[in-house]
């Protein structure tokens, strides 16, 4: 199997248009037949500061950044300095910069890469209204073998609101850059045409999560803007009205969460999206949803914490608060998508599960999934929909919280005659009246626990691959790099098992024991400083005696080769 | 109790759930419970079409005592939960109930923004200027010189919150005050509040006989407002700032349209959403 791959980074000061340029380049690559994705890294500034678009294209679907970059283009040299650690380069990497493009770079003299100069700023000045990022777009397109004709229609689409002059000057810049790149080294060329007729999509993880929510039946969203979850809301604000739903921008996260509970109490499947600081504010009300048995979904697009942390960069450090952050004994669901595409599935499944079990579900995405724009095969349609158990008729006295076998009791919806009850965060009896009796407390605690531990989650609880005696266990966005590492090892004849739980709470001891059957060595990989995932696994499951952890905090992503090195080092040592 | 049919009128008592209130004997909230049942009966709102939403505190126990759909949520968030419900279910009569601590202290931000947003619902605040459930601390509406608060033995020394002035400034569309001692008068005001489009704020002076026994006097000192409700916010503001909190009646009727996003049911264009992602 020969796979073609190219990794390209574009850096610039914020506002210099690297993200626009990156999106256009990705789309042009997609039209030429590539799969790929573009991740974003940025400082906290809204304008100014530095931004980097990290693109990888491949002849096959991919989910992981590569070990290093083939090409980096800095619109101004100074913008490189912030990303030295995030953009590893090799001696044969090509670094294109512009000596007269702006601030000087302190890192440039030390780079291992071949450095070439492209006077983007000067070239743009010769075009009326010209911009250096469009010169760069043309140049990079040529270097990686994309036809300039495809760029015109993409420019047309992207710039349609800016008028014919903007289109004309951008197109002139693109062609200038394209022509000038004839003097620069070239890479790759167009991908091998696999002849595949699979429908491909251009989608971000945040859009995918929004789409999953809508497909699952969510029609009410209340939320407060927060990086990096805002794009979920922006997408939903446009999409929901088209399917009869509504998005409300609430005054804060406390209001968002409570509005969502109110709407769901009224019978409408509901969701909010936030990031760590917002999740912290919501935890009291998530406990209310658990206790009053009102289904809700909370999407947490994780970023570096604690506190405000690094708002624009990714980390897997909300696992503790998501699984253990509610006060009291509050059993609820925690799920995590394993790829951009899986954001559709996992969010849709979360809606289905929350509605089926009348409880709260927290979906842990993260900045690197959410803000990555990917070219992927169309996410499969799945049958999981919001289906809530609602009483058809009422006994003399309706018992909203009847204990029953499964723990799931029929939930009356306002407007249903005879179903009047008070949903309550106070402990209550089966009828819903407040109760401080120990027997009612025990009965209701067990009801709420039983309905989620006894549920049949089927095969979707985890992604499992291979059956070697060494296994890697990971979750969320780090699944991509792990999967690529294991696939490279498989090509070398090493079978290493992958375990990536999609369902983090409730725990699945029987299924996990089966997944770990025969495993002698287990490597835990996670992006958190305090080994949150490892400690979660230790508390929930029986792990092999030989269990090691490879962890680090955000924002640096895991790269396949460093995972391979960890595994090789371990096998060499034993 | 015989089940009601379409041709028999629902009596106030049929809006009670039968759960016995936790309130102290003599608590003003009993009167408000009676007024709410009278208002629901007066308007013949079917119990299944009414939803009463509350947070935490003595008066926030209200939904449990009513035969209606109810939600007894977390402290301070009743208005947010009620807003979500009303947006999702505009067909329901939504009433939020609570006290001065729940509404103006921990829930103060939601109070401001619900007034601004102006959803078509009614907020009944039983104001007794004290935290009763936690046994007698000063609340946002407590007089700064009240020295019996166990956490503020020398008095709070800080300015009391003026809920109706704030409601007006924030955009509430209907503002009224009443006394729990006047059960029928309060019921009439609640009915007007429910009928008025947009967000209706009803402050009910409801004595805490346990921690503020002097409030028993309220029934003798409240005064029906000498002038009719105005729809002029400037006039209403002047009146509210100078009435010492004892004028009862409807004080302001605004004319802002209620907030109600267009919610359509049974539209199914989900496949169309795929279009924007397709290459």
What's the number of domains of chain B? Answer: 1
Q: Roughly what is the average pLDDT of chain B, rounded to an integer? A: 94
Write down the CATH class of chain B: Alpha Beta
The rounded Rg of chain B comes to: 20 Å
Global mean pLDDT of chain A: 94
Question: How would you sum up the global shape of chain B?
Answer: globular
Given helix and strand content, the structural type of chain A is alpha/beta
What is the approximate shape of chain A? globular
The span between the termini of chain A is 31 Å
- What is the gyration radius of chain A calculated from CA atoms? 25 Å
Discrete helix count of chain A: 17
Structure at a glance:
The complex is a heterodimer of chains A (574) and B (279). Chain A is of the alpha/beta class and 574 residues long.
Question: Please, could you describe this protein's structure?
Answer:
- The complex is a heterodimer of chains A (574) and B (279).
- Chain A has 574 residues and is α/β, with parallel strands linked by helices.
- Chain A folds into 3 domains: 5-183, 3-Layer(aba) Sandwich (Pyruvate-ferredoxin Oxidoreductase, domain 3), CATH 3.40.920; 202-377, Thiamin diphosphate (ThDP)-binding fold, Pyr/PP domains (Rossmann fold), CATH 3.40.50; 458-573, 3-Layer(aba) Sandwich (Rossmann fold), CATH 3.40.50.920.
- Chain A is 34% helix and 20% strand.
- In chain A, the strands form 3 sheets. Chain A has an 8-stranded mixed β-sheet. In chain A, strands 9-8-10-11-13-12-19 form a 7-stranded mixed β-sheet, with helices on both faces. Chain A has a 5-stranded mixed β-sheet with strand order 16-18-17-20-21, sandwiched between helices.
- In chain A, helix 6 (205-216) packs across helix 7 (230-239) and helix 6 runs parallel beside helix 11 (342-357).
- The two termini of chain A are 31 Å apart.
- The model of chain A has no long low-confidence stretch (mean pLDDT 94).
- Chain B has helices at residues 28-42, 78-88, 100-106, 108-117, 163-170, 183-195, 218-221, 233-242, 270-274; strands at residues 50-54, 69-72, 93-99, 121-127, 130-131, 137-138, 174-179, 199-205, 223-224, 247-253.
- In chain B, strand 9 (223-224), helix 8 (233-242) and strand 10 form a beta-alpha-beta unit.
- The longest helix of chain B has 15 residues, at 28-42.
- The relative contact order of chain B is 0.14.
- Helices cover 30% and strands 18% of the residues of chain B.
- Chain B has one domain: Rossmann fold.
- The N and C termini of chain B lie far apart (65 Å).
- At the A-B interface, strand 7, helix 6, helix 8, helix 9 and strand 15 of A face strand 2, helix 2, helix 4 and helix 9 of B.
């Amino acid at each position: 199997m020969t796979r073609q791959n190219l990794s390209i980074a574009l850096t610039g000061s914020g506002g210099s248009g690297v993200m626009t340029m990156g999106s256009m380049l990705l789309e042009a690559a997609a039209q030429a037949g590539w799969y790929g994705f573009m991740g974003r890294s940025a400082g906290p500034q809204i304008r100014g500061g530095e931004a980097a678009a990290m693109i990888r294209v491949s002849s096959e679907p991919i989910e992981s950044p590569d070990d290093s970059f083939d090409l980096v283009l800095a619109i101004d040299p100074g913008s490189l300095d912030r990303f030295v650690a995030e953009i590893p380069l090799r001696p044969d990497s090509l670094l294109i910069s512009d000596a007269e493009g702006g601030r000087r770079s302190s890192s440039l003299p030390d780079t291992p890469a071949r450095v070439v100069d492209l006077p983007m700023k000067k070239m743009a000045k010769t075009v009326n209204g010209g911009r250096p990022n469009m010169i760069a777009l043309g140049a990079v397109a040529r270097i990686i073998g994309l036809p300039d004709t495809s760029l015109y229609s993409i420019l047309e689409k992207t710039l349609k609101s800016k008028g014919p002059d903007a289109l004309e000057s951008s197109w002139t810049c693109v062609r200038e850059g394209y022509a000038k790149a004839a003097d620069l080294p070239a890479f790759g060329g167009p991908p091998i045409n696999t002849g595949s007729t699979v429908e491909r999509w251009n989608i971000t993880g945040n859009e995918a999560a929004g789409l999953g929510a809508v497909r699952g039946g969510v029609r009410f969203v209340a939320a407060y803007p927060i990086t990096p979850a805002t794009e979920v809301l922006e997408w939903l604000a446009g999409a929901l009205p088209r399917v009869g739903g509504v998005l409300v921008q609430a005054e804060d996260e406390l209001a968002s969460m409570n509005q969502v509970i109110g709407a769901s109490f009224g019978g409408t499947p509901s969701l909010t999206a936030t990031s760590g600081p917002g999740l912290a504010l919501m935890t009291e009300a998530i406990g209310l949803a658990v206790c009053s048995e009102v289904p809700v979904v909370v999407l947490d697009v994780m970023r570096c914490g604690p506190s405000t942390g690094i708002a624009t960069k990714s980390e897997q450090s909300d696992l503790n608060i998501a699984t253990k952050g509610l006060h009291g004994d509050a059993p609820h669901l925690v799920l995590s998508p394993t790829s951009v595409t899986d954001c559709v599935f996992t969010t849709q499944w979360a809606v289905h599960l929350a509605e089926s079990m009348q409880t709260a579900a927290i979906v842990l995405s993260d900045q690197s999934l959410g803000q990555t724009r990917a070219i992927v095969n169309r996410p499969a349609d799945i049958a999981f929909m919001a289906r809530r158990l609602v009483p058809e008729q009422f006994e003399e006295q309706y018992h909203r919280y009847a204990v029953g076998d499964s723990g799931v009791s029929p939930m009356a919806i306002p407007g249903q005659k005879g179903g009047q009850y008070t949903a309550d965060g106070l402990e209550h009896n089966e009828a819903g009246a407040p109760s401080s009796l120990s027997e009612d407390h025990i009965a209701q605690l067990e009801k709420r626990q039983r309905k989620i531990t006894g549920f049949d989650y089927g095969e979707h609880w985890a992604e499992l691959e291979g059956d070697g005696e060494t296994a890697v266990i990971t979750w969320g966005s780090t699944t991509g790099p792990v999967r690529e590492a294991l696939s490279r090892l498989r090509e070398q004849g090493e079978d290493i098992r992958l375990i990536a739980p999609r369902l983090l709470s409730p725990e699945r001891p029987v299924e996990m024991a089966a997944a770990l059957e025969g495993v002698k060595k287990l490597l835990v990989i996670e992006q958190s400083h305090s080994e949150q995932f490892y400690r979660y696994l230790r508390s929930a499951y029986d792990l092999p005696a030989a269990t090691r952890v490879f962890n680090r905090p955000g924002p640096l992503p895991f790269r396949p080769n460093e995972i391979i090195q960890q595994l090789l080092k371990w096998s060499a040592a034993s | 109790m015989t089940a009601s049919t379409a041709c028999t009128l629902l009596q106030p008592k049929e809006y009670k759930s039968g759960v016995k209130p936790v309130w102290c004997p003599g608590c003003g909230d009993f009167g408000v419970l009676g007024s709410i049942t009278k208002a629901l009966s007066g308007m013949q709102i079917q119990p299944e079409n009414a939803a009463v939403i509350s947070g935490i505190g003595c008066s926030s126990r209200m939904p449990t005592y009513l035969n209606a759909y109810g939600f007894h949520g977390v402290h301070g968030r009743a208005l947010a939960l009620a807003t979500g419900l009303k947006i999702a279910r505009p067909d329901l009569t939504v009433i939020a109930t609570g006290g001065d601590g729940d509404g103006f202290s921990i829930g103060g931000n939601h109070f401001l923004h619900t007034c601004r947003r102006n959803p078509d619902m009614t907020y009944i605040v039983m104001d007794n200027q004290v935290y009763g459930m936690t046994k007698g601390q000063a609340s946002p509406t407590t007089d700064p010189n009240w020295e019996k608060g166990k956490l503020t033995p020398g008095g709070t020394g800080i300015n009391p919150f003026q809920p109706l002035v704030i409601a007006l400034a924030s955009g509430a569309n209907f503002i009224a005050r009443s006394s729990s001692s006047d059960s029928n008068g309060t019921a009439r005001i609640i009915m007007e509040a429910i009928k008025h489009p947009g967000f209706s704020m009803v402050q009910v002076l409801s004595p805490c006989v346990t921690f503020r026994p002097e409030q028993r006097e309220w029934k003798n000192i409240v005064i029906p407002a000498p002038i009719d409700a105005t729809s002029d916010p400037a006039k209403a503001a002047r009146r509210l700032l100078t009435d010492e909190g004892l004028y009862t009646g409807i004080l302001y009727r605004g004319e802002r349209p209620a907030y109600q996003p267009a919610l359509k049911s049974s539209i199914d264009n989900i496949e169309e959403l795929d279009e924007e992602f397709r290459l």
